[in-house]
Predict the 3D structure of the following.
Amino acid sequence: MLPTTPAGIARAGELLRAGALVAFPTETVYGLGGDATDDCAVAAIFAAKGRPQFNPLIAHVADVATAQAWARFDDRALELAHQFWPGPLTLVLPRPADSPLSLLVSAGLDSVAIRVPGHPVAQALLRAAGRPIAAPSANRSGAVSPTTPYHVLESLGDRVDAVVAGGKCAVGVESTVIDLTGPEPVLLRPGAVLPDEMERLIGPIRLSQGDPTAPKSPGQLESHYAPNAAVRLNASSAESDEAFLTFGPDRFVFGGASRLNLSPQGDLNEAAANLFSHLRQLDQSGAGRIAVMPIPDEGLGVAINDRLRRAAAPRP
Ligand code: TXA
Ligand code: MG
């Protein structure tokens, strides 16, 4: 574990430049970082996660100007970048033909996913590293994403060289991913930046969710974000052998061997921030199944329900 002091950040930057894997906080979830221009470092990310090689990674940089060196921005991309960066938005853009970015980052596609995170520790680390950092969520592939440094250690243990310990992530679900490689923008993953906020700037966006058989973004593979326990959605009450993940006032909650509330006030932002840590805790309660109350499918609730559906999907 490295502290978020200038010395800790400098050490993390050194490690990244030397090809090591460093997990670090972003405002969404913890990322498993490696030098995106170093094939060996990127290959090590795939190995540590047990991630399928066809699932490409996001390259993280410190600002819009740097991002423009690594991907081709059109007017729509610039509009979104200026409005939402730094922040929880990832743009999928054409990859320049002569890009020194490792080909593994794009997993053979002619596009690249790029993001400028807003978390001050991520910002400081990207500047210390001085190069784009490939960073998927810092968990084993298909499992629950980490929102604290302890989650990273639980999930990856000594598969990571260092973890920059920056506390709990404020947003709690991964960035919104939008594909701008074609004439029509396509939402590949819902997150905290909402489609209508983007549509105001760039016009209609196609929502590509719900077609698990033909994933454009391999992260759309159906089973994902899965705890060990089975997950049962839209539960109004829980059986005595189930753990219960609830939402809204506790007076409406019945049953469950153990319970955690995503947000007693019914606040979707709070619910998103608690989602992955509550799933992990209920998983550790020993119940074989987690029942989940319905979450309103609006605003950040869309991203929460997207992750919950994948957590509940049949396992391979
Ligand atoms: O919030 C986040 O985005 C976090 C933090 C660490 O930045 N990262 C993250 O990375 O969630 P990951 O690898 O777990 O998810 C990246 C998503 C995947 O669904 C992947 O398939 C998609 O982005 N993706 C990456 N590159 C792509 C590309 N060139 N074309 C289409 N989809 C892409
Ligand atoms: Mg992930």
